Amino acid sequence: MVDFLDELEANVPALRRYARALTRNIDRADDLVQDCLERAISRRGLFRPRGPLRPWLFTMLTNLYRNTLRAERRRGETIDVEALPDLGTPAPQPGYLALGELARAIETLPLDQKEALLLVTLEGLAYGEAADILQVPLGTLMSRLGRARATLRQMTGTAHEPHLRTVK
C-alpha cells in the first residue's frame, strides 16, 4: 500500500503545472501548491481512500484558487511591474507570439471554462475525472470545454487548434 505522504509527493509536479497554468505566475502558483499541500496534510484524516489521492488534491487546489480570486476581487487588482513587457523589445519568434496570444485568450475565459480546459488539455485528465474534480456533471464539463474551445478559436482566428484537443 502506498503511503499517504509518498502519494502526496508524487502529485506535486502535476499540482504545480496546473497551478501555474491557472495563475500564470510562478510565485503565486508555488504558494497555491504549498497551501494545498499544507491543507492536505492537516486534513489527512478527512481523506477516505476510495480511489487515488490525485482528484482530492486537484479539488482542493481548485477550491483554494477560487477562494484566492474572491479575496483578490475584494482587495482590488495588483499589477506586477516586473511582468510588464518591455515595449522596445520585439518578440523573439512568431511561435512565441502565437503562444502569448493563446495564453492571453485562455486568461480571458470564464473561470469555469478555464478550469475545465486546463484539467483536460494540460493535465490530460479523463472527462469524468475532471468533472468529479470540478464537482459538475459530465455533460456540464463537456459543454464548458466546447464553449472554451469555440471562444479560443474565435479569439485566435484559428480553424483548428490540435494542441487544445484531447481524445478520451
Automatic annotation (TrEMBL):
Key words of the record: Sigma factor, Transcription, Transcription regulation
Transmembrane segments: none
PhyR sigma2 domain mapped to chain residues: 9-61
RNA polymerase sigma factor 70 region 4 type domain ranges (all copies): 100-152
Superkingdom of the organism of origin: Bacteria
Pfam families per the UniProt record, alphabetical: PhyR_sigma2, Sigma70_r4_2
PANTHER family noted in UniProt: RNA POLYMERASE ECF-TYPE SIGMA FACTO (PTHR43133), RNA POLYMERASE SIGMA FACTOR RFAY-RELATED (PTHR43133:SF25)
Family as reported in the entry's similarity comment: Belongs to the sigma-70 factor family. ECF subfamily.
Name this protein carries in UniProt: Sigma-70 family RNA polymerase sigma factor
Organism name: Devosia salina
